Amino acid sequence: MPGSIGENHLPEKIKLLVTGLNGVVGRALRPALEERYELSALSRSGVDGLPGERVFRADIADFDDLKPAFEGVDVVLNLAADGGQSSAEGMNGSWDTMLRNNIIGAYNVLQVALEAGVSRVILASSGATANGYEWEEPYSLLVSKEDVELPESWEMVDEFSEPKPITLYGVTKLFGEDLGRYYALTTPMSVINLRISSCGPVDEAGPGRSQANWASYRDLQQLTIKCIEAPSDLKFDVFWATSDNAKLFRDNRHAKEVLGYAPQDGVR
What we know:
alpha/beta; Rossmann fold; 8 helices; 34% helix; globular
């Protein structure tokens, strides 16, 4: 079927809707997505540089206002949220804003996508689902800005490790993952959660946590494309979006095994 997911040679471009394209991650991904897909965008403030008929203004928490943007879309990439790099208060936003943007918003995106016949939704999750590991050794050493002696080896934190959120933002991202699982199990729709790690406004790893958790723009672009184009029988999964960093503990092996992810970058 033209535009369907999971095809290597598409007679027509996949119609991809991205929410939150103006954010840090959206800007990192946009060049690759715009080149490869028929890209449309939904945001509160609008998006420059796309044809007007593919730019939709709406609040993600307003269910009915979202519907026009989803018509005829094959895949949705939901980046819209509060608490990430683009948020004024970072991960420390209020419960009210987290509830509106991250919980109600995630539900609205999935339900509107289902009603519109969307094949797949990719939800931007976060390393915040497991930030509590960084309060424990040996992970506290791996993210330290100080010159500390590193362990010879450490146990990796994969997608099946115990979640350890230490902010409401992390809690809401875990809710999004489980909500996606519910939709994948009970509807025809595929839902993939992408746990985006350290991706900032500049494509480089800063000191401290980024040395372990960094995801370069081109690695994040590659992995996102692989999620978009994964076979249709991949109904649900969770993947860590990280580059191959020497201090890495957020394990990206699952993405390599399932999707063929091959990171090109990493902090050595």
